[in-house]
């Protein structure tokens, strides 16, 4: 399971992780909040309803003409900008779900209306809007579930602002793999396979690919 592989990137840097913990999985295709009660034991608490965070960064970068992949392009541009543009946040009160299509559309309308004069400021503002929601919801869920740790994983977890913002905002310890282990890699899948093997979960050579496989 690709999402489970991202989670097990955490065990590549710390094998003494305590359960229960909340996993914030952020990538090009996913923005999920999951409660992990033990190895292989997950409860998905929130998912994206439209664009995932990484997908939103890709689309925002295209809108601003910053290139691909969008996450690193937005982050690089944002370093030279100020988050001075007010962009909406979709809090979806009463749920732990995410939605990033609205902030992307708001950015597009500003650009089309000629109201963006500094791409770096626009990148910084968009990055802040997305990360604000990710961090706020992750910390709230972790407090509510009374977990021992928050695990931040997935390609978007390599974003420096996200890593620092979550660590500073959370009263609960935050564990984040080094950036090279946040993007897709074989080591995280091997780590996941190791713990599945330890739990007696073994598949035969007839195992097929399931592209839509869910975490839980």
TrEMBL record:
Q: Where is the Gcp-like domain?
A: 1-190
Which Gene Ontology molecular function entries are recorded, alphabetically? metal ion binding; tRNA N(6)-L-threonylcarbamoyladenine synthase activity
Which GO biological-process labels does this protein carry? tRNA processing
By its UniProt entry, which Gene3D superfamilies does this protein fall under?
Answer: 3.30.420.40
Q: What is this protein called?
A: N(6)-L-threonylcarbamoyladenine synthase
Entry keyword Acyltransferase: yes
Q: Please give the catalytic activity noted in the UniProt record.
A: L-threonylcarbamoyladenylate + adenosine(37) in tRNA = N(6)-L-threonylcarbamoyladenosine(37) in tRNA + AMP + H(+)
Keywords for this protein: Acyltransferase, Cytoplasm, Iron, Metal-binding, Transferase, tRNA processing
Instruction: State the InterPro entries in the record.
Output: ATPase_NBD, Gcp-like_dom, KAE1/TsaD
This chain's source organism reads marine sediment metagenome
What Enzyme Commission number(s) apply to this enzyme? Answer: 2.3.1.234
